[in-house]
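Intended use. Records like the one below are meant for learning the mapping from a protein sequence to its folded structure. Do not use them to infer anything beyond what is encoded.
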Amino acid sequence: MSRLARVVVLAGGISHERDISLRSGRQVADSLAEHGLEVELRDPDATLLAHLRDTRPDVVWPALHGASGEDGALRGLLEFLDIPFVGSSSSAARLAWDKPTAKIIVGRAGVATPRSITLGRDAFRELGMDAIFAAIDDELTVPLVVKPAQGGSAQGVTIVEVRENLARAMVEAYTYWDVALVEQRITGTEIAVGVIDTGDGPVALPAVEIEPLSGVYSFEARYNAGETRFYTPARLSPEVAERAAETALTAHAALGMRHLSRVDLIVDGAGTPWFLEANVLPGLTETSLLPQALEAAGHDLGWVYTTLAEAALNG
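Structure written out for the chain above:
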């Protein structure tokens, strides 16, 4: 019989993705409660750590998107307090949270990732905007993707079709983080591959194909029903689908992730999956990709969430 009885789900926080986190947390909490667990849904605040020390829940489920839940700091504190939690360790979260770092690590594992350059805001003051843009012109061709080096839900992300819009895209990215990633855009099929490990090793879920009606998978397209078409499984040949699954598993392992993750890829016309980023806490809202993949694989969400909590408890 499982020792798991009480789970604290953390949702909300102070990041730009607070509202999404609250929706994810509610979905997880309701699913766990339906499977007979005592669940406390809590917004982190200055009383949280004392509360966790005093009440000692069996497991904490961090459903916090953005830096408050994905940069490794909270996970490090839970490790320090010796409280089991669902999801990747603090060290893995730090690696995956920083997109340039994740690209380097996954690229060294043999996975294709678009060519890019990482630029801190201060570089423009020290080296000059014209010199930096000239260097980019020599190495990368439009279209480009400009995004904050840290962050999620496509906030601060711009697709640059003409050079004249690059400066504005950099400003938009710097609104969310002091470091920006300028990346060659790969044309192809955008997919997300979820990975779960309920105790028997990581397994790739069916890929979800993403087709935003606007042409861009923006924040609004992600979380407003009806603005994006999803195909699960993705409309890929069996060979390419298997290649995408292997790519996701390679990225998951290279970054040291555990329990669950989502790997975002672009499959080009030749069938090559290109790594974009990895998420240690995939969205779990009613329109999110991981729940769609779980359902396509025939899994009951409540069973999966409960089993992941049990895996966390059992180490």
